[in-house]
Amino acid sequence: SISGDLMIRNIQLNHGGKYVCVIDTDVESLSTSAILVVKGPPGPPDKVAVEEITDSTAQLSWTPGRDNGSPITGYIIQARTPFTVGWQAVDTVPEVVNGNMLTATVVGLNAWVEYEFRVVARNIVGLGEPSPASAKTRTEDASM
């Protein structure tokens, strides 16, 4: 019995597939094959939209990105305003946005502030790249 190794450096998702090893001699030809499955963090969600906005909440929707070989287990919603430094995770209802959901309500927003939102998917491999930002949307004025 002969054994060997296959080494793929800097593996990428597109390296997955069927690999065949063939040994040809003057006497005989032998081959064996293996299926290589490459898994990675999810691709970025898309089409993040603000469906409805109040003075303190925003109802968001999005479309999923590629799962890259491992099911999406959840989403993180992030927001930024002219007053924040970079993107910040925000509170949502439900509190945990699982991988089957494509909507969530962001809570605890400030009145009369312009927000942008984005969504990050995760799976067992890790966090994916964030979605493109939603259109800028201003929360309503606080009720008196």
Note down, in words, how this protein is organized:
It is found in: Cell membrane. It is a lipid-anchor; GPI-anchor. Residues 44-142 form the Fibronectin type-III domain. InterPro entries: FN3_dom, FN3_sf, Ig-like_dom_sf, Ig-like_fold. By secondary structure, the chain is mostly beta strands. It has no helices and 11 strands. Strands 5, 6, 8, 10 and 11 form a 5-stranded antiparallel sheet that branches. The chain has a 4-stranded antiparallel sheet with strand order 3-4-9-7, with no helix packed on it. Strands 1-2 form a two-stranded antiparallel ribbon. The mean pLDDT is 94.
Average pLDDT, all residues: 94
Shape: rod-shaped
* Radius of gyration, taken over Cα atoms and rounded to an integer in Å: 23 Å
Q: How big a fraction of the residues is strand? A: 35-45%
The helix content, as a percent range, equals: under 10%
Extract low-pLDDT stretches.
none
- Alpha-beta classification: mainly beta
In angstroms, what separates the terminal alpha carbons?
Answer: 82 Å
Number of helices: 0
Number-wise, the strands total 11
Taking the sheet with the most strands, its summary is: 5 strands, antiparallel
Helix-strand topology string: EEEEEEEEEEE
Keywords: Cell adhesion, Cell membrane, Disulfide bond, Glycoprotein, GPI-anchor, Immunoglobulin domain, Lipoprotein, Membrane, Signal
InterPro entries: FN3_dom (IPR003961), FN3_sf (IPR036116), Ig-like_dom_sf (IPR036179), Ig-like_fold (IPR013783)
Protein name: Contactin-4
Subcellular location: Cell membrane
Q: Which characteristics define this entry?
A:
144 residues, rod-shaped, mainly beta, four-stranded antiparallel β-sheet, five-stranded antiparallel β-sheet
